[in-house]
Specification:
Protein name: Hsp20/alpha crystallin family protein
Largest sheet: 4 strands, antiparallel
CATH class: Mainly Beta
Oligomer: single chain
CATH topology: Immunoglobulin-like
Strand content: 35-45%
Radius of gyration: 27 Å
Family: Belongs to the small heat shock protein (HSP20) family.
Pfam families: HSP20
Structural class: alpha+beta
Mean pLDDT: 76
CATH architecture: Sandwich
Helix content: 10-25%
Number of domains: 1
Number of helices: 3
Number of strands: 7
Low-confidence stretches: 1-31
Length: 145
């Protein structure tokens, strides 16, 4: 009589998934929002958004009626590796990144003079502060006639 062997190795399934979905895939799936710095000086506020690989065309910045600065980013990528003879995809990757952040502006920001640029993977937005003269115009006393 032959002995009956029981195969009770339940570790094979996680190994298959680990081999199929390697660590690179997991990192891409768990992408996080970019880091944001807000810096204040005597003359302005500066917002910096870490955005490696992004260009100015990937960003949209606008002001809302609620005194918010809205920063949004959208990037679509597609890379292909093909077998030259049979024209079958051996690997094809799509990536899509989207981010949106709304920041409430301080009352002393000169909205008409806000500027932005992208340099070395960092989006920089400069929010100039109102001068003393501009503040005086806003806070002027209105005479009653």
């Amino acid at each position: 009589m032959m002995p009956i062997r029981k195969y009770n190795n339940q570790n094979w399934l996680p190994s298959i998934f680990n081999d199929f979905f390697d660590n690179d895939w997991m990192v891409k799936a768990n992408a996080t929002a970019p880091a944001i710095n807000v810096i204040e000086s005597n003359t302005d506020y500066k917002v910096e958004v870490a955005a490696p690989g992004m260009t100015k065309e990937d960003f949209n910045i606008h002001l809302t009626d609620n005194n918010e600065l809205v920063i949004s980013m959208e990037k679509k990528n597609e890379t292909k590796e093909e077998d030259k003879e049979n024209k079958k995809y051996l690997r094809r990757e799509f990536s899509y990144s989207k981010f949106e952040q709304a920041l409430v502006l301080p009352d002393d920001v000169e909205k008409e003079k806000i500027s932005a640029n992208v340099n070395d993977g960092v989006l920089s937005i400069v929010l100039p502060k109102q001068t003393a003269e501009e503040k005086a115009k806003v806070n002027r006393v209105i005479e009653i006639h």
